[in-house]
Amino acid sequence: MTLKLGTTMRNLIADAMGTELASATLSVYTGSQPADPQATATGTKLVDITLTSFDTAASGVAALNTASPNDGTAVATGTAGWARLISASSRRIDGTVGTTGTDFIINTASITNGGTVTLLEMDITQPES
Question: Tell me, what's the pLDDT at 1?
Answer without folding.
Answer: 72
